[in-house]
Amino acid sequence: MNVLLIDDDGNLAKVVSYQLHQAGYTVDTAADGGQGLERFKKGDYDIVICDIQMPDMTGIDVLKYVREIDRKVVFIIITAYGSVDNAIEACRLGADDYLSKPFGKEQLIFTLEKAVRFNRLQSENIHLKNQLGKQFRIENMVAKSGLMRDTLKMASQVAASNATVLIQGESGTGKELIARAIHYNSERREQPLITINCPSIPDHLMESELFGHIRGAFTGAYKDRTGKFQLANGGTVFLDEIGDLSSDMQAKLLRVLQEREFDRVGEDKPIKVDVRVITATNRDLQKMVEEGTFREDLFYRLSVVPITIPPLRDRTEDIPYLVDFFLRKYSLGHKTYEVEPEVMSVFKSYHWPGNVRELENIIERLVTMAVSSIITKDNLPRYFFEQDNVPGENTIELSLSTDDFTLDNAERKIIQLALNKVGHNRSKAARLLKVPRHVLLYRMKKLSIE
């Protein structure tokens, strides 16, 4: 690594330069700030070590000039004993660390290596965030069907705001993927995205998990704990399967959404937070509100912008593109795979109860077990060919007498058949009929269907 040492103390510069050479560093020296800046502009340095007190300009002046040219170079300040406050100010302005005189070789090398490691971690962190931004770029997501394009368009629009979002959809449709896309396409992308899976946390631990606790708040609380909302300050909290939240926690979450503050368990001292809340569920929250198992006021707070992800069976146009994407993902570049047209026909007629997640798992399995680059029908699991999945063999016949042959009667009969087929679950019936739930309820009321 190339080091530029700037110090007007010639003896110290010689000693430090010798110690750095012994440790394997390449060192250039400068006797003052002006000479140091000239060398920095012409050279290629990984580390700058600069004394804070020099006759022509201070080390802080040099730091400011260096940071205008290069934000990544490691900058170490040398300060005299008793001038630590100046060194701390330098760190606030962009120095990576400081050395307080007198210092030995071990402290010198340790400080440099620590600063280099930290600088490298920061660069890697920035790189990973940039990669995440690319991975979750909304325009790069697979969406050829009109339904999915509309969903992604809404996600793109809401990402630019701070609105609370409720993502609805069956299991495996990609609700968490949409939540991440919203976060990484928002102005909060540089701040944390904290994910909480509500069903996986026991009710008696949920409050501590979300809001934290202080030592001694309950049995087993041996030390203070920072909650997820505080960790996400400035960023986004994603609450997955929000329908599983207990009524007590629903009330506490409502307070956070209204007041933007909470109390840690065992502490009566409100903590203010700036977080965006995104929630997701595969349950019918509106029905839960009607049944009294989910708070109505919380439902309206959460669903400022509701986004519904269509099931895979309703967007079969996306299947070939998803298959191609997963084939490339799991082949790892070792081999090119393709599926026979008959396989794609089976995929398009299958009802996909596990949605995109099920499709991904199937493709991973097929690639893992494939003996050739062509995937055929023989490679598919047997359940793909069971009776309920064969097109045309799971149909419903609609019969009307001549006297009943009206549009209202036909619609009434279709709705009743759909309700019977799904055990009178109105949400499932709406999905079967491919209409929004509120449209089905309106038609049922109009046609006097119980």
Tell me what the structure shows.
The strands form five sheets. The chain has a five-stranded parallel β-sheet, sandwiched between helices. A five-stranded parallel β-sheet has the order 7-10-13-6-14. The chain has helices spanning 10-22, 33-42, 59-69, 84-92, 105-135, 146-159, 175-184, 203-211, 228-231, 247-259, 285-291, 296-302, 319-331, 341-349, 355-369, 407-421, 426-433, 437-446, and strands spanning 2-6, 26-30, 47-51, 74-79, 97-100, 165-168, 193-197, 212-213, 225-226, 236-240, 261-262, 271-272, 276-281, 305-308, 338-339, 374-375. With 450 residues, the chain is an alpha/beta fold. α6 (146-159) runs parallel beside α7, α16 (407-421) crosses α17 and α17 crosses α18 (437-446). It is elongated, with a radius of gyration of 31 Å.
Low-confidence stretches: 390-394
Class by SSE composition? alpha/beta
Mean pLDDT: 86
- Strand order, sheet with most strands: 2-1-3-4-5
- What is the CA-atom radius of gyration, in angstroms? 31 Å
Portion in strands: 5-15%
Oligomer: single chain
Strand tally, please?
A: 16
**Coarse shape:** elongated
